[in-house]
Amino acid sequence: MKIERPTTGGGRKLYIETYGCQMNVGDSEIIVSIMQNEGYIFTKKIEEADIILVNTCSIRDNAEQRIWGRLKEFQRYKRAKRSLIVGIVGCMAERLKEQLLEREPIVDIVAGPDSYRDMPRLVDAVSAGSKGINVALSQEETYGDIRPVRFDTNGVSAFVSIMRGCINMCAYCVVPYTRGIERSRNPETILRELHDIYEAGYREVTLLGQNVNSYRWKNEEGEVVVDFPRLMEMAAGVAPDLRVRFATSHPKDLSDRLIEVMASHHNICKAIHLPAQSGSTRMLQIMNRKYTREWYLGRIAAIRAAMPDCAITTDLIAGFCTETLEDHADTLSLMREVGYESAFMFKFSMRPGTYAYRHMTDDVSEEEKTRRLTEIINLQNELSIASNRRDIGKTFEVLIEGTSKRSTEQLCGRTSQNKMVVFPAAEGLGAGKYATVRITDCSSATLFGELV
Ligand code: 5AD
Ligand code: SF4
Questions:
Q1: Does 246 have pLDDT greater than 70?
Q2: Is the pLDDT of residue 451 over 70?
Q3: Mean pLDDT of the chain, nearest integer
Q4: Domains of the chain by start residue, with CATH
Q5: Is 213 in the pocket of ligand 2 (CB under 6 A)?
Q6: CA of 91 to the centre of ligand 2 (A)
Q7: pTM of the entire structure?
Q8: pLDDT in tens, 63-94
Q9: Which residue, judged by its Cα, is nearest atom 5 of ligand 2?
Q10: Which of 84, 207, 290, 441 is most buried when burial is the number of CB atoms within 10 A of its CB?
Q11: Is the dihedral of CA 233, 238, 241, 242 positive or negative?
């Protein structure tokens, strides 16, 4: 018998806007799930919202500045509807609770990444005339039992969070302070979610965490019973036509065993995102990355030996504290040596509370950071085009995501290496199906091909 219990939402409409990483997208899906269970209705139209939530990012100062700007824009919705509730959730809420409440009177709710189960109560607190605040971080919360409500997806590829938080303490990074300590999600709940996703028609899943290589699930005796390579094997076993990816890896924890597991499963995608941050061993040490340039290159060699066709992508930071021209040149030479398929590239942004903030000086000028970043971006463009050119003439299995943006006569999808391919549509092919495509041409961002 289903037990009816009173819900607090009462049909009120919830709108949510998401900034930052894929983890945040996943968190927004969890929030919507929790709120729907309480009788709230999810809407994609901000004008009809009774509650606006902004899921925020603190990784760089410009991410936070954008959100302060966005908050100003919400004033007009509040003027139009006095009862409108505005909540700031996620990393910036965790980091800036006091400032948010003081500087922006329109903010009613401030909720950190581990307090989403408390969201219905926080809304009720606001309805009763006070502010709703919860920024407590947890050592256990993984939202493992919650089935995320997937909105804004292509229905083909989904993201599944397998762990939360981070303990690596890179000197520049605010994440351990905003998302708390590292903890792994129960593998049973992960596999259940993978089966659900497959049943719902998804054909690709990306397992997500700040450092998935340190995933470990222990039994009651404290023994590790599932580590990341094992979890990948279990995920690959869900269905032969369900592709499995993962993000993000810390190079120091990328094991031979994981490489072996990747190489021996057809449906584990041949793509590794391996953030280097810098090509200079001196900088890596100051950044507290716990590996050297040589060690990083050793990992790349191991990947290449086992999987010659594996795509390698990275994150790079230009102008971290004390970075010299020589350090910067090391980053450029590392990029050439690896030949990255693509990269996320950033100017260093000093974040309050981090080790760098407490112990170092942000001594590379803004102008010089920009100059170095531009060099990095220009080089990466060359490398990306070179990598795409090497694919011309090769044949790939492409998982179709839908029709291309430009024309309905064209389909688009991704290779195992995660490159986008555009090719002519054909009978019987559509989103969620696999096609075999020979590459005939490319741009810097896309491959073009024909069906074989
Ligand atoms: N400044 C610039 N980039 C940063 N990243 C993390 N912290 C900072 C910072 N303070 C980058 C790193 C990381 C990616 C998610 O963001 O490259 O891998
Ligand atoms: Fe931004 Fe990092 Fe938080 Fe993701 S974990 S939202 S990248 S600060």
A1: yes
A2: yes
A3: 96
A4: 13-134 (3.40.50.12160), 152-269 (3.30.750.210), 270-390 (3.30.750.200), 395-451 (2.40.50)
A5: no
A6: 6
A7: 0.95
A8: 999 999 999 999 999 999 999 999 999 999 99
A9: 175
A10: 207
A11: negative
Alpha carbon of 175 to ligand 1 centroid (Å): 9
Single-letter code of the amino acid located at 199:
E
- Measured by CA distance, the residue closest to atom 16 of ligand 1 is 59
